[in-house]
Design brief:
six-stranded mixed beta sheet; 186 residues; alpha/beta; 28% helix; three-stranded mixed beta sheet; Rossmann fold; globular
């Protein structure tokens, strides 16, 4: 039986090192191309209630996407114990409504309204990498692994194309995503 946790840990380490080596200007360019690709995607255009993430450790930077579409209802998560708690964030007040939270990730203030998770149209999901089968490699904390099985909405992994790989070791609890979007494809 393969040692999936060890294989995932080693793959995560290699890919995070690779991602940290992306020059800042290239990271910003790739992020903008990815945001433009998402903005032109029909599923995004039709979505009204969207869950998103703040960039961390050189993940794709999606700020220009939500700034371009402030009339959509945007939700961002807070890590509370071992769970993700989703809050609605008014984009016009984004800077004021976000704080550095668990793990140094930008999170919504705890007193913002909770998102109605029954009406989610689209979930933009961060990852270290995704594979051709739709599986994602996260950071190892299991937050999305615990949350995704009961989530509603179209699930899209958001990564740079260099991190769209052939295969990631998967466990029985891993939930394949509906789509993977990179700066080169969707």
């Amino acid at each position: 039986m393969p040692d999936f946790p060890q294989a995932k840990k080693q793959l995560r380490r290699v890919l995070l090192t690779q991602r940290r080596q992306i020059p800042d200007q290239i990271w910003q360019q790739k992020s903008q191309v990815l945001c433009d690709r998402i903005a032109n995607w029909q599923i995004f255009q039709e979505a009204k209630n969207i869950l998103a993430f703040s960039s961390f450790r050189q993940e794709p930077h999606l700020n220009s996407l939500w700034q371009k579409f402030p009339d959509k209802t945007w939700g961002f998560s807070r890590c509370v114990d071992k769970d993700l708690i989703w809050h609605q964030v008014a984009i016009a007040d984004f800077e004021r409504n976000m704080r550095s939270g668990a793990f140094g990730i930008l999170e919504p203030c705890h007193d913002l309204p909770l998102m109605n998770l029954e009406n989610i149209d689209l979930i933009l999901i961060p990852a270290v990498a995704c594979d051709r089968r739709g599986y994602r490699l996260g950071y190892g904390g299991g937050f999305y692994d615990r949350w995704l099985p009961n989530s509603t909405g179209f699930k899209a992994g958001i990564i740079f194309d260099d991190f769209y790989i052939d295969a990631i070791p998967s466990d029985i609890w891993d939930v394949p995503l509906d789509a993977i979007i990179t700066e080169k494809q969707r």
